[in-house]
Amino acid sequence: MNIPVPPRPGSATSRRPASRTLRDRATPASRPRVPTLAAYACLLIGLIDLAAAVFPGFRHNRVRLLAGHLPGGTTTVAAVGSLMVGVLLVLLAHALRRRKRRAWRAVVVLLPVGGLLHLLRWHTTAAGLVSFALLLVMLLYRREFYALSDPRTRWRALLNFLVVGGASLVLGLLITTVHPRYEAGSPSLAERLRHTAYGLVGLEGPVRYTSDRVGDLVGYSLGALGLITLLTTSYLFLRPEKPVAELSAEDETRVRQLLDRHGARDSLGYFALRRDKSVLFSPTGKAAIAYRVESGVMLASGDPIGDVEAWPGAVKAFMEEAGRHAWVPAVIGCGETGGEVWTREAGMDALELGDEAVVHTADFSMSGRAMRNVRQMVKRVERGGYFCQVRRVCDLDEAERARIADAAARWRGTDIERGFSTALGRFGDPRDTGCVVVTAHRSPAGDEGGTGGAADADDLAAVLHFVPWGPEGISLELMRRDRAADPGLNELLIVAVLQAAPGLGIRRVSLNFAMFRSALARGERLGAGPVLRAWRGLLVLLSRWFQIESLYKFNAKFQPEWVPRYVLFPHTRDLPRIGLAALQAEAFVTLGLPKWGRARAGGRGGRA
Fold first, then answer.
1. pLDDT of 569-602, one tens digit each?
2. Three-class HEC string of 227-272
3. Rounded-to-integer distance, Cα 227 and Cα 532, Å
4. Spatial separation of the C-alpha atoms in residues 5 and 339, rounded to whole Å
5. Pick from 186, 227, 181: which is nearest to 207 by CA?
6. Fewer CB under 10 Å: which end of the chain, C or N?
7. Is the Cβ–Cβ distance between 73 and 80 less than 8 Å?
8. pTM of the prediction?
9. 337, 31 in Cβ contact below 8 A?
């Protein structure tokens, strides 16, 4: 059935006015700048509160008549209260910018309290009036703050303790230091640190003050900072957990049914079965989008799964979910057809991210000058006593599955598994019957021909793992080898699977994804301009730390078809945030958890 074909992703005609896109229709907000301005105003008021509570000179002004009639305890409590309000407002500013409803409720309570404390203690009438003015704005535009809270785990309590506790220690040390005129003696930095640490837990420290009021102010302020750390950490630890991304058994069954009917459309479709992703379905149930939330970014990968005609419904459900939580919607590794649907239905922009290498097995041949290097490498490795086996994972027994999985884990080379868009994160699952595994083995002594026979338990040298791409294709998911093995094993494995593919009914094989391939290819051509050459030079430089140029050159050995992939985003200003979220999803960046606390979920082998 024919459907309208929209313009190419990223073209000027593919970008609709903001008022006509799902990106805006999915949210009830009509004034997108209000939350941002309110957040910055909240942050400014919080900083003013902190400055007024910490620095004595900030509080000295010409209007001090009422302060002389107030008892010292009252003004000290007001100072401590202002400190607590300031810390909380600073902590809530980011959530307020993201339209979080709970942050709005907390700020609406804190603003009048902070304003009254300003008027009571320091007579900073302007700051108090600003607090009440912002309160009025928050009440008038309360509908702009609608977003639900994010998925969470109790690891956030540990992160909060480390961040807020560290900030409280620094701020407390500053409070302890800004009263040199009232200090008894000359306490050292170590004594100030001890005094701050003791004060945060409610104990008396080694620093003494000649003024009781100053001593009370410092002690109460340190206690207040410790109390904030305790209360926020306890709240995050004791509140009920909201489930993080997880593929339920029912959703997995539905996704597998869609893949059985439409899995040939996208080589990345099978990776929707990662069990650390969530899935949203179209209203008809004929299409689905798998995603994960990282740092406030709702990140999908590849094209939607299922019937193309139902893709717009899945995109609408995705954008509505992002709008309810005020997440930034984004897609990485999207194909051209999917990109056209996203740009048309959601008003998103597209940027070419790189190219996927696809080899058609009917056209693959080891003959010819272009394949000379691969041919020589393969023959050298075979003469070294290596041979390959290409099998369906379902044909392996349990012992061999366990041995291959254990070897792949040993050869990983990193503390945590990496992967999101092109990784399945598991091997040997009984439900993954269509997966293909290619193993390289060392031939037994005396077997110079490399025929090998049955593989021994200790001869495994390298492994490739492919997931199904419809009934006639496979997509590379994992590429690992023993680092002590001879170079060239990866070439041997890929040649083996390409030569064995027709016997398995496989017509196309998706290899590695090469980021910025077109820029690398065009930049080395004769006549390339200075900007393109400079961009290629930067990519080559970055290749020292990331597999950019090396993956491109490795893939190019097999004469593949290059299929472009895109990243889709709502606004250019969101690209840095989306980039960070993608790095977190792929586990190249891990935030917040110590090494021993990172979940070993997901898994990526050799794909980019």
1. 999 988 999 988 888 888 766 654 444 444 443 3
2. HHHHHHHHHHHHCCCECCCCCCHHHHHHHHHHHHHHHHHCCCHHHH
3. 56
4. 11
5. 186
6. N
7. no
8. 0.71
9. no
